[in-house]
Amino acid sequence: MAAYNECSGEAFASAVSKFSDFSDPALTTFVAMLGISTMCFVVSTISGNASQVDKIWSMTPVLYSWMALDASSSRSLLMAVLATVWGVRLTWNFNRRGGYEWPPWKGEEDYRWPALRQGIIPGFTTLDRPIPWMIFNLTFISFYQNALLWLTAAPSLVVWAAANSDKCSGAKDLNWLDYVAAALMLTFITIESVADNQQYAFQTEKYRKKDAGEPLEGDMADGFNQSGLYAIVRKPNYASEQSIWVCYYFFGVAATGNILNWSVLGCLLLIALFQGSGWMTELITLKKYPKYAIYMQRVGQYLPFKFIWNKVRGEEAKRD
C-alpha cells in the first residue's frame, strides 16, 4: 500500500512540476482548453448562439485523451479508445437533432440558454440584461464548462504521469479494475444510446402526428416520454453520462492504486453540474407540461428507487 501511495503522490507531483514542460500533456491539454474556451466565447458572442460549447462537448474529452496517450501503456490506449466510442456516439446523436449546420456557429441552440437569457429562471433573472449575460457567457458557459470537460478527461493525465513515473511499477499494465471500469463504461454508453434513441423516436413521432393533425394519446398527449427507460428514471441519459465519467476516473485509480487523486474533481463537478442542469430542465418542462409533476412523484430523476418500490409493492403508480 505504501508503494501505491507513493505512486499516487508521484503522479500528482509530476502533473505539477512539469506543468511548464510542453512535453507533458497536462500543459498542452490545458493550453488547448484555454484556446477552445476563448474561441467559444468569441463565436457565441458574435453569433448570438450560446451553444458553442455544446457543439464540442463530445469532442474535447476525446481530444484530450489522445493528447495524453502514452503509447507504451495499454491502459492509456484503452482510455482513449473508450473516450472515442463515447464521443462518436454522442456527436452522432447531437448531429441528428440538428446541432450542426453550416456555417458551424449555427445549428440548434439548447433551449435552456434562451430561458436563462430571458431571465425566467429563479435566481438568474438578471441575465436578461446584456452585461450580466456576457459575464455569465464568459465565465460559466465558455470557460467553466470547458474547464470541466478538461477535468473529466484528467484521469488520462494521471495515467500518463503514472506510466512515466519510476515509483509506479506496473502502472502500464491492465488489471482487474481496468476491465471492470471498461465493462461498466461500455454498459452506460449503451444505456445512454438506448435512452437517446427512445427519446428521439418519441419526439419525432409526436411532432409528426402534430404536423399531420393526428390525435395524440398516452404519453404523447401528456407531451413527454414516460415509457421504456423513462419509466424507470426520468433522465436515464443524464444518469448514464454521469456514470460514464465516474467509471473513467477509476482508470486513474487502477494506475496508482489509490482511490483518491486530483482528477476526481472532474466527475464530482460533472455530477454537480447535472444537479443544476437537471433542476433547470425540469423547471422548464413543468411550465410546459403540467402532468410532469405527477410523473416526478412516481419516477426518480436519476436513481430507480421509486420504480423498484412500485414493483415490490406490485402496484402501478397512477398516471393521472
Automatic annotation (TrEMBL):
<protein>
    <recommendedName>
        <fullName>Steroid 5-alpha reductase C-terminal domain-containing protein</fullName>
    </recommendedName>
</protein>
<dbReference type="GO" id="GO:0016020">
    <property type="term" value="C:membrane"/>
</dbReference>
<feature type="transmembrane region" description="Helical">
    <location>
        <begin position="176"/>
        <end position="195"/>
    </location>
</feature>
<keyword id="KW-0472">Membrane</keyword>
<feature type="transmembrane region" description="Helical">
    <location>
        <begin position="143"/>
        <end position="164"/>
    </location>
</feature>
<feature type="transmembrane region" description="Helical">
    <location>
        <begin position="248"/>
        <end position="274"/>
    </location>
</feature>
<keyword id="KW-1133">Transmembrane helix</keyword>
<dbReference type="Pfam" id="PF06966">
    <property type="entry name" value="DUF1295"/>
</dbReference>
<feature type="transmembrane region" description="Helical">
    <location>
        <begin position="26"/>
        <end position="50"/>
    </location>
</feature>
<dbReference type="InterPro" id="IPR010721">
    <property type="entry name" value="UstE-like"/>
</dbReference>
<keyword id="KW-0812">Transmembrane</keyword>
